[in-house]
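Look over this today:
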Amino acid sequence: MNDVFGYIAYGDNELYHSGALLSALKLLHHCPKAKIIVATDRPALFRGYPLETILVSAEKKNELSFDWRYHFGIKAGGLIELLKRADRLLFMDTDMYPVGNLSRAFEAITPCHSIMRLCEGAHAWCPRLEGKGVRVGDYVVTGHEPMWNSGILGVHRENLPALLDAYPPMLAVHEIAKIDAAEQFCIGIALSQDGRTISPHRLKIRNYNTRGKKLFAGPRVHQFFNVYGDAPIAQQIAEAARYRLWRTPVDLWHQRRMWSP
């Protein structure tokens, strides 16, 4: 099996790119033989590291984002390109990072079963889609579907047609429901059709995807590369493995003081 770990990093925010690279370095500590591919508009930032890149050009970003009407279309398109290069893909957002061996995740990825970060259930905006004729493949959206979070996605290559079905209706979902989560909403629906199932990941992965977590972790991600960015790759991997991005009780206390009136 061609098992691939994937990331997507694009845009002007340096943290997306540095976060993906630091997560990949942590991954290489826990899974030394991991095959990692990053879809990115800045491949030079990843040059010299033991991973592959897929260039997401300015023209491609414009195309995938529906002429910038829905920029998360770039993520959806990136997922499709990553899956074309894998038999089984385990994707993580750039603010996700492993704290243990993730190799066993691939055992749960089959043509009939995918894994995603978690099921968020139906949202208050979902009924706005009822009766609008939005289709994901042959499925007509009812407005009562649960939404799966795509911060983590494990998917089999045989489900590439499902991801292709999920892509076109994203713009309509975004514009009708007035939400940015159209990408993961449509992917969750597509991967749930024709007897296929999804389960939450249950892997050793942490994140800094909330305001408080990101406020703490973001500067530390940049600091890592300021300190170790010129070190040999083996040293960067070793240092990344023990580099802390989560908050201690003392860190939480300092943040509460900072936010207190």
